[in-house]
Each structure stands twice: as C-alpha cells, then as structure tokens.
Amino acid sequence: MDEVTGSAGVGGSALKLAIVGPSRSGKGAVAGHTKALVHHLAQAGHDVTLVSWSHPFPQKSASEARAVPGAPDIPAFPRTVRALSWARPDTWVRTGLRLRGFDAIIVVPATPIEVPAHLVMLRAAGVGPGTARPSDSGPPRSIVIAHDELPQQSRAGDSALVRSLFERVDAVMVHSHEQARRAHDLHAVRVSVANPGEAETEAEPVRQQQQVETSDLSSPWAHYVGAMEALASPHWQAAEQDPPESTPVPRFNPSFRTRLSAPARRMAQRRRPVLALTRLDLPEWVRSSDVLGDGADADDARAWARVFGLPRCADPVAAWAALGALAAIVRLGDDGHRSAVILDGSGVHSPLARWARAIGFAPVELVFPDIAASAAGLDVDAASMDVITRLHPNGCDSEDVDEVLSEASSALRSGGLISLTLPLGPASADGGVGPADVRALLARAHALGFVLVGDLDGDIATLMRAASEGSQGSDAAYALVRLTFRRL
C-alpha cells in the first residue's frame, strides 16, 4: 500500500492537510471538485495530500460515477496516494494510523456506502468531536465536505450512515442553507455554509469547478479555501470565541427536535478515555474457548466488564461471548499498539466492537444493509485480517459454521484469530451442535489450517458433557460454546 506522508519544507504557518475522497478522471462533479480543491489549497501554501481509492466501492450508481456533461477534466494532483481499498478493511485502519500526524483530515464522501470505511479510518486516526485541541498537538481536526450524500434518495440506511459520520467529525461544510438544515438534523456538531453571503452564485461549488481554472484563487475559490483554512486551523477554538465582524451568520434554524436534543447528544459524544486493558487485567476464568451452561457465569462476565469500565451491555450472554473473544484478542492478537485489524460480524447487539474501541482498537463492523455478516459479505482480500468474530446473538450455527471457517481461512493472516459461538443442543434444536459435532468441527477446522485456542479434552469437553447430561429430554439448545481458532 502507498505510504501516506506529507512533504517537507512547508512553512510553519501552513497546515498539513489530508483530503480523503475520489480522484479518478471522468468520475463526475465530486471528484472534479475534490481535485480542484486540493490544487487551490496547495497553491495557498499548505502541505496537501490527496488520499484516494485504489479499489473503489462496487456501486456504479454512486454520485461519484455520474459524470458532468461538458465539464473539463481537472489535472491530476501530484501528491495523490491511492491507499484505500474497498476489498481491504485493513487499509482503512492503516491509513487512519498514518494520518495521526496531520493538522486536519477532510473527508469527501461520494456515496453513503463509503461511510463505514471513513468511520474506521477516523477512529484509527484518533479523531472525533471534542478530541481536537486548540494547539499544535493532539488529534487532527476532522471535517466532512457534504455534496449529494446528504440523503435525498430514501434508500434504507442512508440517513443512519450519514448521521453516524456527522456525529463523529468536528465540522461539516455544506453549500446551501437547506443543506445546513439537513446537516443539523443529521446531528452535525458544527455546520459551516460555504460563501453564505452569495448563496445564489456560490452555493454549489461542485458545479463551479467546471468554469474555474485551478490556478485562479479569485472568488469563489478564495472564499472557499479561506473557509476550509478556518475549519482546519489548530487554533479553531480561539477563532470561534472571537469571530471577525465580516463573518456572515447563516440564516437557518435547526428543527425543534434537533435543538432540544443537541445538549444531551453532544455530551454523549465526548470521547471516552481509552481503557488500558492488558493481559494481566483479565481474570483467569475468562477463556478464549469455553462453554456457557450456567447463567451465573454470564452475569459474572457482564459484571466484570462493567466494573472495569467497559461500555454497558444489556444481554449477559452477549457479554460472556464478547469478553472471551476480547480476551483472546488482547492475549494473542495485540502487538501492544492496538493495530490489529478486527472484522466483527456479531451484529449491533454484541458489545464486542464497542469494547474493542474502548480499549484502543478500531474494529470494522459489518453494518451494511442486506449483506450477510461474514467475511465473504465484505469481499475482503486474502490474508488481510488479524481477527474475525461471529458471536452471540449473531453467532454461527450448524448450517453456516463451515462456510465461515472456510472464508476466514482465506481472509486471515498467519497467526490471525477467529472467535465464534455455536448453540449446543440435540439434533432437534435449530442450528444446534452436540459434543460429537464439535469434535468433528475441530477436525475440519484443522484441515483448513486452524488450531483451537484451548483444550478440547480438558474443561471444554467436561463442560459440554455436563450441560448435555443436565438437559435430558429437552429439544432446545441447552448451552453456548465459544470456539477461538488461530490460523497456522
């Protein structure tokens, strides 16, 4: 993957900026506007890197792909790094880690389906509302330039995806007062309208790129670059406390519901400090592979997580499943820098992703509509993942566990982990497996290059046998088994 670095020799008053967005020729107005913007920012004296996609998102109807008839192609920006790939979530994490030294990260989404990748990248960069500091130290500022991805087509999930991005970043740049109102209703922390004093002629800089040469810093681009500089400046808080008299006040009002919920929402958005969970903090009774046959064990797992400070979890069984997987990641999958690439297919009701974020990881969650929670659903490249999880309540069953293991054997690097749960029960139980089925599964997993983290012939076999004997005559699942495998 291309390295993401800035250039040397830029003056101390300049900003080190990463613009993350489309860049390919013939990809429409958003790509053209993005390339024009990076040219103007560089000509204004800033250290600019355009971070783009080597393997774009597989959606032909995306707004990025809608070319503007008759629009001239903007020259390629010399410092363009194609570091991101749709098929490799590890590139989202690694790109974010490399952007930590920038003053600001400016995200230009072309379609809502890109939002999960942008969220993972921003988390890895350590940014979020309330994290940027009015000094030259601390995390980068995070800004979104919103074009057509403000949801207007009512596709399922679009509004939720864009809302999650707007809640994450420090500021959103829009191009009209109507867009500003929608951005506020989508929980944007701060909204800036580009050139609000001349809305009629300058509210749509996406179209302006067709007429403005990249060497011309006259209006409207001079105003646009100035607005971006104000948002990206590390001294942004001081500027906000004493705004210049010439700064126009946007003429819009958020909805009543947005204004009512804003104080509580912004308080909840304050970034929690990262918890320092180490191998020594984990109790011995939390095992990577285990059997849950007693509800008290699930209650103990949830109570321990709560006392330690991990985010709350309403379901004790989900807490038990996630805690064992988290322990495996910390004990076996962490290099000390929280850089492991984690693909979590456990669903929104599992705390695994929230807990992993709380201790410093940046997991990739499978949250796309209508896509199965599996490695194949994301079409990841071979040997690109460090950890894959499929845990209760969206764990595996007897019907899909072999497929999940087969996909993971390709997606995981050597030494990578997969942690999954299966219901234990008689043949009549929906999706259930018995002790003999588990033993056969381990043999098939070994043939795929996996080794169990734990001792099947020790406590696991004893617990499975005890759970089976205690449920004689039941047609339902009687226990839950968590199996963690390591890729050879």
Written account of the structure:
It is a single chain. The protein is an alpha/beta fold and 488 residues long. It folds into two domains: 16-269, Glycogen Phosphorylase B (Rossmann fold), CATH 3.40.50; 279-487, Rossmann fold (3-Layer(aba) Sandwich). The protein has 17 helices and 14 strands. It has helices at 29-43, 89-98, 115-125, 158-168, 177-185, 199-202, 205-208, 221-232, 236-241, 256-269, 295-308, 316-332, 352-358, 375-378, 401-411, 435-447, 456-469, and strands at residues 16-20, 47-55, 80-85, 104-107, 141-145, 171-174, 191-193, 290-292, 342-344, 364-365, 385-390, 412-424, 450-452, 479-487. The strands form two sheets. Strands 3-2-1-4-5-6-7 form a seven-stranded parallel beta sheet, sandwiched between helices. Strands 8, 9, 10, 11, 12, 13 and 14 form a seven-stranded mixed beta sheet that branches. Strand 4, helix 3 (115-125) and strand 5 (141-145) form a beta-alpha-beta unit. Helix 11 (295-308) packs across helix 12. The longest helix has 17 residues, at 316-332. It starts with 15 loop residues before the first strand and ends with a strand.
